């Protein structure tokens, strides 16, 4: 890896302000004090090692979850400088860990060319939010150590030995008085650091979990970089060309792109800036899309695949079935958007677009068979888009002629404020009838569905608009689908899927979630989708208040009976096979009353993992699905025979 030639000493560590209020307002610095915020602490320390890798001084990072949820992060970079800082008059390492915005990542004369993370906030914030931190540095021929508790120094920097190695080791225990939980999720960390290894080719990242009886370990090292990333993303998909296309260019803004087309109908494009996942896109993504659209249209016209009378292919036609990863390194990134994950640097658009134009047009000319295969899919997507437009217009015209534009089976609510309104999408007319009678008509709407719906993973938009199972859902939500989806137009703040607690109900729920993920993804990202949790059992006895139980294991229910002094053998137990077995009052009391119901919010922690699981479970490839079933059969709790 090329080294960024620059001094990295005390003079390069700039102090902007003191460390204040982090413990009082941790959410301002790490987003939340939930498990997501807990993981963020690890990411911040690892980012410091990755920044050393970006500068060309580190090629290995290890992350270990030790017993007791202690985190240890070790890298073989240059080591944090240990000399006295000219401004703070304490060691530079102590300055980095006790002063907010003190780091080697600020200003044009900093110790880094580019950096990720929170740009110097990380180390001091992790220190402030930890019970203790132990820092060990190898540098300048020595081994140095210092310790902190609650953000304050308890052991000043001292030399504890000699070494000809360099690097930094950080061990810390998050503060349980601040965080909701200290239990790290190994799978989440593993996915994050696999992604990090893809984005930094040649960097080896080791992850280990030593909390259980049997240690869990993984090692990620990809010389192929983003090419390896795309191959990983497409491992369960049918590809249109064997190898991903690769684009790389150094310069003022280094750009790395890899893309590959599959037979799928959805597009999956992931963009990163300085290793930060820009989930809202930005100027780098815009440059990629513009370049992609221009190159394919120019090639199609030049080779008579498209005639002048045909007009141009739209960007969405050209992106159908694409899997792409875009990574740019920007010295001073400007982030915008609601979650500050949208790149705003205007010069990046032209840089990325120009590079895509140059490299991709050359690739297509040199690989005419691949170009032809991709463009055949693009033309097919264009025809399907036109068919979808006609189907959409037909639906609109049909609705305009009817007395209402809402589906006939929808029992709407009287409230018009979408923020307080909720719609239950219910399996079957029987359960739908009970739900309609039991609901609160002021703010609860009911939409019954019958039978299995279309698997959208295997269908284009034109099929969806003509589907009699999905069309009512589209009309009821009221915000369109796909590229036309507008989250501001949703008619209900909560979209609640309510199905039977059996295999068929789980299948219908999965089909609906696949539809929302592929064609109404902002609905999930915005936190509008929920799963209702109907009870599995009712325990009843004359003269006793009914007990509804939501778990297969009845041990807790029997404990309640015991506390009430009621022998379990005197109590009848009813196992609900479906929602239709409950009368309206029971359905309201157990599943629909906001005061007593249990709702599970559908969250998307990892878009890449979500895409993978939908592809495996709902896609055309049988092999990966069979493997998934074999790997997870041991976890099955309920199986209808």
Q: What value does the Rg take, in angstroms?
A: 28 Å
- Tally of helical segments: 19
| Beta-strand proportion | 15-25%
Uncertain spans, ≥5 residues at pLDDT below 50? 106-110, 400-404
Query: Which range best describes the helical content: under 10%, 10-25%, 25-40%, 40-55%, 55-70% or over 70%?
Result: 25-40%
Query: Termini, distance in Å?
Result: 57 Å
Second-tier CATH architecture of the largest domain: 2-Layer Sandwich
Itemize the secondary structure elements and their pairings.
Elements: H1 27-30, H2 35-54, E1 60-66, E2 70-75, H3 92-98, H4 122-128, E3 130-139, E4 142-149, E5 152-162, E6 167-174, H5 186-199, E7 204-209, E8 216-220, H6 226-233, E9 245-249, E10 255-261, E11 268-273, E12 276-277, H7 283-302, H8 315-318, E13 322-328, E14 335-336, E15 342-343, H9 347-366, H10 368-401, E16 422-427, H11 429-438, E17 444-449, H12 461-465, H13 471-477, E18 494-498, H14 503-519, H15 521-525, E19 529-532, E20 537-540, E21 547-549, H16 555-563, E22 572-575, H17 584-592, E23 599-601, H18 607-618, H19 622-632
Parallel strand pairs: 1-7, 11-13, 16-17, 16-18, 18-19
Antiparallel strand pairs: 1-2, 2-6, 3-4, 3-6, 4-5, 7-8, 9-10, 10-13, 11-12, 14-15, 19-23, 20-21, 20-22
Helix pairs in contact: 2-4, 7-9, 11-17
């Amino acid at each position: 890896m090329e080294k960024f030639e620059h001094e990295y000493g005390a003079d390069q560590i700039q102090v902007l302000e003191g460390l204040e209020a982090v413990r009082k307002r941790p959410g301002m610095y790490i987003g939340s004090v939930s498990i997501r915020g807990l993981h963020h602490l690890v990411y911040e320390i690892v980012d410091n090692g990755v920044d050393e890798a970006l500068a060309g001084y580190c090629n290995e990072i290890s992350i270990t979850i030790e017993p007791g949820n202690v985190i240890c992060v070790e890298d073989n970079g240059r080591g944090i400088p240990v000399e006295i800082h000219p401004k703070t008059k304490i060691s530079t390492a102590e300055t980095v860990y006790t002063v907010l915005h003190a780091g080697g990542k600020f200003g044009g004369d900093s110790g880094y060319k580019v950096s990720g993370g929170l740009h110097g906030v990380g180390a001091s914030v992790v220190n402030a939010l930890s019970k203790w931190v132990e820092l060990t540095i190898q540098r300048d021929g020595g081994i140095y150590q210092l310790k902190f508790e609650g953000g304050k120094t308890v052991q000043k920097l001292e030399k504890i030995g000699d070494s000809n190695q360099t690097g930094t080791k950080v061990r810390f225990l998050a503060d349980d008085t601040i965080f909701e939980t200290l239990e790290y999720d190994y799978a989440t960390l593993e996915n994050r650091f696999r992604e990090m290894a893809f984005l930094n080719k040649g960097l080896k990242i080791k992850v280990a979990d030593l909390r259980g009886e049997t240690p869990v370990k993984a090692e990620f090292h990809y010389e192929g970089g983003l090419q390896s990333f795309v191959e990983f993303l497409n491992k369960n998909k049918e590809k249109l060309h064997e190898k991903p296309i690769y684009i790389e260019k150094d310069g003022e803004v280094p750009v790395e792109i890899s893309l590959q087309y599959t037979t799928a109908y959805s597009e999956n494009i992931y963009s990163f800036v300085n290793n930060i996942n820009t989930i809202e896109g930005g100027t780098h993504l815009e440059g990629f899309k513009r370049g992609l659209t221009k190159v394919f249209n120019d090639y199609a016209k030049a080779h008579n695949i498209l005639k002048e009378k045909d007009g141009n292919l739209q960007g969405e036609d050209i992106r159908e079935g694409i899997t792409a990863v875009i990574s740019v390194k920007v010295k001073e990134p400007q982030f915008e958007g609601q979650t500050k994950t949208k790149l705003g640097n205007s010069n990046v658009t032209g840089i990325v677009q120009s590079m895509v134009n140059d490299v991709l047009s050359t690739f297509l000319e040199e690989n005419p068979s691949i170009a032809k295969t991709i463009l055949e899919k693009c033309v097919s997507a264009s025809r399907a888009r036109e068919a979808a437009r006609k189907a959409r217009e037909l639906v609109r015209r049909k609705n305009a002629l009817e007395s209402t534009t809402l589906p006939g089976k929808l029992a709407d609510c009287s409230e018009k404020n979408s923020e307080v309104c909720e719609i239950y999408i219910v399996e079957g007319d029987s359960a739908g009838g009970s739900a309609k009678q039991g609901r609160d008509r002021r703010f609860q709407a009911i939409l019954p569905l019958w039978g299995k719906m279309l698997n959208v993973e295997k269908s284009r938009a034109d099929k969806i608009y003509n589907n009699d199972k999905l069309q009512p859902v589209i009309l009821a939500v009221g915000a369109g689908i796909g590229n036309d989806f507008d989250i501001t137009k949703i008619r209900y703040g909560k979209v609640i899927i309510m199905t039977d607690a059996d295999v068929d109900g789980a299948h219908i729920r999965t089909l609906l979630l696949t539809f929302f993920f592929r064609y109404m993804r902002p609905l999930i990202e915005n936190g509008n989708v929920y799963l209702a949790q109907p009870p599995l059992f009712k325990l009843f006895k004359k003269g006793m208040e009914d007990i509804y139980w939501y778990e297969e294991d009845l041990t807790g229910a029997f404990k309640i009976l015991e506390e009430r002094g009621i022998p379990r053998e005197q109590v009848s137990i009813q196992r609900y096979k479906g929602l239709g077995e409950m009368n309206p009052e029971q359905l309201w009391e157990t599943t629909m009353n906001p005061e007593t119901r249990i709702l599970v919010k559908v969250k998307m922690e990892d878009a890449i993992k979500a895409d993978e699981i939908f592809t495996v479970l709902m896609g055309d490839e049988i092999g990966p699905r069979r493997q998934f079933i074999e790997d997870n059969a041991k976890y099955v709790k309920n199986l209808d025979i």
